[in-house]
# Entry
Amino acid sequence: MIVSILMLVSAVVVAAENSTSTSVAVSTPAGLFVDSAGNIYYSGIGDKVVRKINAKSKRVATVAGTWRTAGSGGDGSAATSATIGSCYQIWVSTMNEIYFTDYENSRVRMVSASGIIFRFAGGTGGTTCTTPCAPTSCGLYQPFGVFGTSTGIIYISDTGNNRIRKVENGVLTTYAGGGVDLLSGVPATSTAIYSPRSMFVTTDGSLYFADTSSNRIRMISPTGIMTTIAGQSGYGLLVGDDGPLSYAVFNTPSGVWVTSTGDIYVADNLNHRIRMISQTNNIITSVAGTGIKAPSTGLGLRAGDGGLAIKAYLDSPRAVCYHALTNSILIADNVNGRIRKVTLSDGIITTLQPLLVEAVGMPIMSIPPRLIFLIPTLCIVQLQVMFTLLTIYLYASGL
# Structure
């Protein structure tokens, strides 16, 4: 009986310890992607894994990396046995190949449909790249973004080198950057770009990206011409909302997503907001966040859930994506350690349901977000009950 009691206590403790390790509320979420089937892929900077939430079963599965184990090993083997660094953007092809940036290891990696991981680009040990060249011969420097097309072209934000690279038919070339000044209406390789981060490629081949250190959202046309969509030099608070795009000011924009109707959602990182650019009327508005980061204590982590997103606290959102099947946007609420959902029909924000908890040897369970804080309390109660039973057992046994 004593052994059984100890095993039960151990199981309860393990369940509590593992609750955050497999919940949607991840450690500093950064990468976020939704495929056409509604499956959600996400990563956490501190977690060192890429995970998938199945659209039908709502279950979480690790697709790359080893939980909180940093490294660069495992290429050519099962992706779930490999080690990776921090991942900032994920893109999934129609062939179910998963591409993601391995920022700390200065490479882009790919997980095949059969679950094998490969080094797709970078990782040479250097930080310079003379193009054209083979993707694995290029010295990428802390790449932040990756996105592809249905025709097999892969674009990479070579963030530390202030370049955007293009991989087509096995050859890597420079697609943007290399100029001296921030210019618009010129070939993309004739203008400067500064710390490009997340990117998005539309079906017509237009590439939108967050030119983070210049505080701009920029676009490269299918013919290779660079234009500025919104933003200007200098850091600012919430300047430009409900006004023309030429007045908009961002503060370290990080994530970008373009809908099929042309609306551009931007994770305005240090303005702690999600903003939307309408290309129909050239107006920018805020759709989530107060502009003030969440309080560091108590309810600040989820303040605003169940209410209007524009009145909710965000803290340094890193990524945003549109979930077409639910007409909602998903937000990587980085410092708050959770993925949040804004239903566009009513503007209500919630923490993505369900939170998923997986204990050793147990199935995944769904726990409402409002009850997740009770787990430690329940564990303590369970321990108290177990020790009471143990005391009774010892007393009755005359031990």
Notes: The chain has a mean pLDDT of 85. Residues 375-396 form the longest helix (22 residues). The two ends are 14 Å apart (CA to CA). Residues 321 and 377 are 35 Å apart (CA to CA).
